[in-house]
Amino acid sequence: MGSKQKTRKTSRKKEKFHSLGELFGDFKISEGEGYITQEFQDYGYRLALELDDLKHKSLYIKMAKQEDRALLERARSFVIDVQAKNKGALFMWKMKQMKEERRKKNSSEEGESKTQEENKNTLF
After folding, report:
1. 28 secondary structure, DSSP code
2. Contact of 94 with 122, CB cutoff 8 Å
């Protein structure tokens, strides 16, 4: 007697690979107001979330793009360590304070280098 082999048909559909654009194309900010496409946008948005200040998220995104990341991180760390009620205001205050310190330091260094150059010029 002949043996019949049962053939099983697999009904698997071949799934194609998706591009990153397709995978993350629907990634929106929770309020549905826009898309995050750049790293600084992501950083600014996460900073706004961490500071509980989504009302001013565009400000944090702008700061993430234009300001020195080290300053932003230092101010963020300061606010998180303090456990303030109004984290956004404290963050902005700390940023202002650190910028002023940097400005004073840079201007004093420039003043010292100018006086050194003037002293060299008078000697020769």
Report:
1. B
2. no
Please check whether residue 64 is in contact with residue 41, taking contact to mean a CB–CB distance below 8 angstroms: yes
Q: Are 83 and 92 within 8 A, CB to CB?
A: no
* Spatial separation of the C-alpha atoms in residues 84 and 81, rounded to whole Å: 9
Q: Mind spelling out the 3-state secondary structure of 94-105?
A: HHHHHHHHHHHH
Report the distance separating Cα 11 and Cα 36, nearest Å.
38
Give the domain ranges of the chain: 36-123
- Give the whole-angstrom CA distance, residue 96 versus residue 67: 12
Query: What does the alpha-carbon distance between residue 106 and residue 100 come to, in Å, rounded to a whole number?
Result: 10
Helix, strand, coil percentages for the chain (3-state, nearest 5): 65, 0, 35
Per-residue pLDDT of the chain (124 residues; tens, 9 = 90+): 555 565 565 555 667 777 767 766 666 555 556 788 999 999 999 999 999 999 999 999 999 999 999 999 999 999 999 888 899 999 999 999 999 999 999 988 877 766 666 666 665 5
